[in-house]
Amino acid sequence: MQLHHDFAQKLPHLVRPTEGEEQPHPQLLILNEELATQLGLDPDWLRSSEGIEFLTGRAGGHAMAYSGFQFGAFNPQMGDGRAMLLGEVEKDGQLWDLHAKGTGLTPFSRPGSDGRGTLSSMLREYLVSEAMYALGVPTTRALAVLSTGQPIQRGHVQPAGIVVRVAASHIRVGTFHLAAQTDYTRQLADYAIARHYPGADYQHFFAQVMDTQIRTVSQWMRLGFIHGVMNTDNTTISGETIDYGPCAFMESYSPSTVFSSIDTQGRYAFGNQPSILGWNLARLAESFLPLFDLDMNKAMDFAQESINGFADHFEAQRKADMAAALNTSPDLISSYSTAMQLNGPDITLAHRALADAAAGHPAPARELLPEGDFLEEYLASSPDPARVDSAMPRVIPRNLAVESALSAAERGDIGPYQELLHAVTHPWEPNPSFESPDPNGLEGYLTYCGT
């Protein structure tokens, strides 16, 4: 394997050398063979003792530095406190980060941290990121999950684990916050442009970041996904979804839905995600100001105009995405949103019912959406049944199914997890075991990040 260290070599002030801690009994639990092969990695080597040493970070790498607005408060110095960039692999002229999380203390670890993560949180990240990929959402992907043989104390004593993820890069909005403090904004921007948006000038670069992030979050919301921690350090320049900590999928439709245990004020509730993305991009624009124009007044005008147009841009994308999925006119999507809020159905079942309605079987949709005019307007628009069917998944990572599979894995039984993983990575295949919501609802359900 030819491993590059391109980010570390070109931006050495944004990394610190580190290596993973020695693990008592590291074992490779899950390996994404298809992804490994796509990247030119040898699955057999990754399973070997040398490969496991590499995946756990024992061969060394770099902790990445960044800042971030966390729940609205600025943290000027953050960085990978329990993770490391192992390096990059090149495939078809593009670099792909290999990034391991849960490898132990780094130079950016906070006081009192152990640099580790629970095995269940690492398995959650693997499962949800691969589900999102299967659903067509831009995302980091998961290469492997390893158990370490290390017990760690969280709410209770749990086994520790490591997840190795793959991304077009791990450059975050928060990376630019740090660069702006240290006068490296232009150098970082030039690197990010060359890697993600070749040929763009700085204003076009910002516009493209906005476009890609809007498309990503719009796709989240079509599926009912709630990120849980949309801090600026969890918002990527590439547009990939990153950091599947206290994330969850909404079942009964409600814009105020929150599952994250740390989001006590509902800042990152389902319906708040567009405005939070706009807020994050405004913070990015502030970091970019010196690049937009040498005349600061002109730079401010461009930034303000871009942010002022965000809400309309997002709403247009959301309507276009939902209209494409439903194979109907964007003009009907406001009626659709009203119907969802009036009726509060399970979002995934409602979408499948609309696919059935398009195919001439409207009874399930009438039962789920009895209030409002949307359904009759929708049927009158004559949607193509095949197109709607191909856009609406049958299976998502339903929260209690995820928790059940993770609990079994924590006890040493990986079978239920493997079964669920297959289901969520084949989301259009009928699978009655994983299509139904929890009959008792999700009131009181919380998700945790595993730190």
UniProtKB/TrEMBL annotation:
ATP binds at residues 79, 81-82, 101, 114-115, 165, 172, 243. It holds the Pfam family SelO. The keyword Magnesium applies. InterPro entries: SelO. GO terms for molecular function: AMPylase activity; ATP binding; magnesium ion binding; manganese ion binding. Mg(2+) binds at residues 234, 243. It catalyses: L-seryl-[protein] + ATP = 3-O-(5'-adenylyl)-L-seryl-[protein] + diphosphate; L-tyrosyl-[protein] + ATP = O-(5'-adenylyl)-L-tyrosyl-[protein] + diphosphate; L-histidyl-[protein] + UTP = N(tele)-(5'-uridylyl)-L-histidyl-[protein] + diphosphate; L-seryl-[protein] + UTP = O-(5'-uridylyl)-L-seryl-[protein] + diphosphate. PANTHER family: PROTEIN ADENYLYLTRANSFERASE SELO, MITOCHONDRIAL. Nucleotidyltransferase involved in the post-translational modification of proteins. It can catalyze the addition of adenosine monophosphate (AMP) or uridine monophosphate (UMP) to a protein, resulting in modifications known as AMPylation and UMPylation. This is Protein nucleotidyltransferase YdiU. It comes from Corynebacterium yonathiae. The lineage of its organism: Bacteria, Bacillati, Actinomycetota, Actinomycetes, Mycobacteriales.
